[in-house]
Amino acid sequence: MSDQAYNFAYLDEDTKRMIRRAILKGIAVPGYQVPFASREMPMPYGWGTGGVQVTAAVMTPEDVLKVIDQGADDTTNAVSIRKFFQRTAGVATTERTSEATMIQTRHRIPETPLTSDQILVYQVPIPEPMRFLEPRETETRRIHALADYGLMQVRLYEDIARHGEIATSYAYPVEVAGRYVMDPSPIPKFDNPKLDDCPAIQLFGAGREQRIYALPPYTHVRSLDFEDHPFRATKADHACAICGSASSYLDEVITDDAGGRMFVCSDTDYCAQNAKGGA
Amino acid sequence: MSLLDASGGGICHKEEVHASSSLPKHLDSDSPLLSVRSVAKRYGARIGCKDISFDLWPGEVLGVVGESGSGKSTLLGCLSGQLRPDGGEVLFDTRDRGPVDTLRMSEPQRRHLARTDWAFVHQNPRDGLRMGVSAGGNVGERLMATGARHYGRIREAASDWLDRVEIDTGRIDDRPRQFSGGMQQRLQIARNLVSGPRLAFMDEPTGGLDVSVQARLLDLLRGLVRDMGLSAVLVTHDLAVVRLLADRLIVMKDGRVVETGLTDQVLDDPQHGYTQLLVSSVLQV
């Protein structure tokens, strides 16, 4: 039962229309950051206001929603956003990746491969991949317009010069469909290969920065690198302590004050399914 | 023997330059590298520069002198595509298409030119360097911007250029902040010349440096200009700098050219009243 004081999915219809226009433009020009009139949402900036607006704009009453925060379904951010849509839209929710039609995510892509019936919505803190290299928005726009991306390569060069390898481990810059360079939001670079040729629609919303961008299904997404320092998706060199998976992305959990630690899957749904299947 | 071939530190051999064979050895091309035709730039009702025309030949260094506010930097900005002139033509002899008016080029073409065939040396190295990026990254940026994607080779080129501008290659991973003013300026030069440009725009390259550092930088520049066959437009108010580097001079006042000629001709036998004043104003040690 949804709260009758609100329109379906909180936002009014005109706002949704405006956001949908931005999304359509974003899908038409993969990787291009479309400005949009981001609204105040009943949550603080940095808690996924961009992702929530995108989700609200594309949501239908039949959708089944899954919300994850760093891969987990049961952390504060995920729980409160899930509740928010339960209350304002009355949609069904799930923790199962395979059952969801819409997944809003903060900083992870689910381990279970996505399908063409699904939409993945990312919460993006800083949409501009060159923000810390070039502070002027006028200049970064020009760089995007002219596809003049030498600067991005300089960032990777600096990484290798300082650390001996490309040490950027999250928000790893990608080139979309051979044109725009895009910040995939702070997903670990382990997830970068999943962006490529993905059957699901991927939408990125940055509320504070007022930008929306998108990857249409089956878009070629290439992680930037050097010929002699190729891109490598990395993860902790362990198996999950709960389900035993050696291939999923792991969180390191400190268990006591004596240096005890364990590695567990960051994707809680995947871990639970895997543990059940393996048992 | 030309001025550029003059050996021996900062000493200038005037007599030799006045000899008939005073053109540098690179001047064997039939067409000018840069042709400027009645370039004008106004700032509202004020004149930035007006009616500027000259040809710059391959391997030639053209000095532009004049007092502050005479339009030197405006002219340099117009030539290098940083300012948009109100009128005139700037024809650059491109490698693939011959002379092209750079003012009518598309922005991507001009950008490409600016990072391959052109160099721009700012007075303040902070304007020309990325202060948060290591020396190697600074030098390598042009290469990466034009498609280099091999880390080892980029680093090799950067290291080679640091060596050529006399910066210890062990400092390749240091940031420019940790460099002295003279080193920063040399790093800026390396960063610009790494792409093997044919034309350099220099805006007071020795401004703000003390005289011994200036002398070293000038020596270095002179060597590089000669080795690379580089043409340059050199804007300065320091007559000693043009004496050392420039083949020809343009003297500007109030946005107009008041006198042109071979450097030594202009400095030793100034015709225009303003040039006479300028030359006589130089302090003698």
TrEMBL record, chain A:
It catalyses: alpha-D-ribose 1-methylphosphonate 5-phosphate + AH2 + S-adenosyl-L-methionine = alpha-D-ribose 1,2-cyclic phosphate 5-phosphate + methane + 5'-deoxyadenosine + L-methionine + A + H(+). It comes from Paracoccus alkanivorans. Its EC number is 4.7.1.1. It comes from the Bacteria. Catalyzes the breakage of the C-P bond in alpha-D-ribose 1-methylphosphonate 5-phosphate (PRPn) forming alpha-D-ribose. The keyword Iron-sulfur applies. GO terms for molecular function: 4 iron, 4 sulfur cluster binding; alpha-D-ribose 1-methylphosphonate 5-phosphate C-P-lyase activity; metal ion binding. Keywords: 4Fe-4S, Iron, Iron-sulfur, Lyase, Metal-binding, S-adenosyl-L-methionine. Belongs to the PhnJ family. InterPro entries: PhnJ (IPR010306). It holds the Pfam family PhnJ. This is Alpha-D-ribose 1-methylphosphonate 5-phosphate C-P lyase. The keyword Lyase applies. One of its GO terms (biological process) is organic phosphonate catabolic process.
TrEMBL record, chain B:
InterPro entries: AAA+_ATPase, ABC_transporter-like_ATP-bd, ABC_transporter-like_CS, P-loop_NTPase, PhnK. Keywords: ATP-binding, Lyase, Nucleotide-binding. CDD domains: ABC_NikE_OppD_transporters. Pfam families: ABC_tran. Signal peptide: none annotated. GO terms for molecular function: ATP binding; ATP hydrolysis activity; lyase activity. The keyword 4Fe-4S does not apply. This is Phosphonate C-P lyase system protein PhnK. It comes from Paracoccus alkanivorans. The lineage of its organism: Bacteria, Pseudomonadati, Pseudomonadota, Alphaproteobacteria, Rhodobacterales.
